[in-house]
Amino acid sequence: MKPIEKYVEAMENKDFAGLAELFSKDGVLSDYCTNSSAQKEYHIYGKEAINMFFRNKFGFRQYSIMEAEVVNDEQAEFIANFGGYNIMAIATVREVTEDGHIRKLTVRPK
């Protein structure tokens, strides 16, 4: 399974620990969709921070995705829900380590 497919699976299942394990120790997840929902964009650095961030977001039902579709080896499209506000989004795996961990992933409005 490709990193983008694993990312979608973890997000759909709200598996914060599994999501964090997809990233390298110094991995970065940047989400620019929040600007469309009157929130600040997210730049999360490191697998531990990704774990804690999404544990809270999923736990308090402040973030989810639906209708996800992997469109190629690096990208997936989905509807991102930010506390009740839906945004069409596209996630792109920008960089992967030699051992297959995500080093850089961005999520942008579509």
Main beta-sheet strand count, sense and barrel state: 6 strands, mixed
Strand content: 35-45%
Structural class: alpha+beta
**Which H/E pattern describes the elements?**
HHEEHEEEE
Strand ordering within the main sheet: 2-1-6-5-4-3
Residue stretches low in confidence (pLDDT < 50, at least 5 long) are: none
The number of domains is 1
Helical stretch count?
A: 3
Can you tell me the CATH architecture?
Answer: Roll
* Mean pLDDT level: 94
Shape: globular
> What is the share of helical residues?
25-40%
Number of strands: 6
End-to-end CA span? 24 Å
CATH class: Alpha Beta
CATH names the topology as Nuclear Transport Factor 2, Chain: A
Radius of gyration: 12 Å
Describe the structure.
Helices cover 26% and strands 44% of the residues. The protein is an alpha+beta fold and 110 residues long. It has one domain: Nuclear Transport Factor 2, Chain: A, CATH 3.10.450.50. It has a 6-stranded mixed beta sheet with strand order 2-1-6-5-4-3. Strand 3 (64-70) and strand 4 (75-82) form a beta hairpin.
List key phrases describing it.
110 residues; alpha+beta; Nuclear Transport Factor 2, Chain: A; six-stranded mixed β-sheet
Secondary-structure map with pairings?
Layout: H1 3-12, H2 16-21, E1 23-31, E2 42-45, H3 47-59, E3 64-70, E4 75-82, E5 85-96, E6 102-109
Parallel strand pairs: 1-6
Antiparallel strand pairs: 1-2, 3-4, 4-5, 5-6
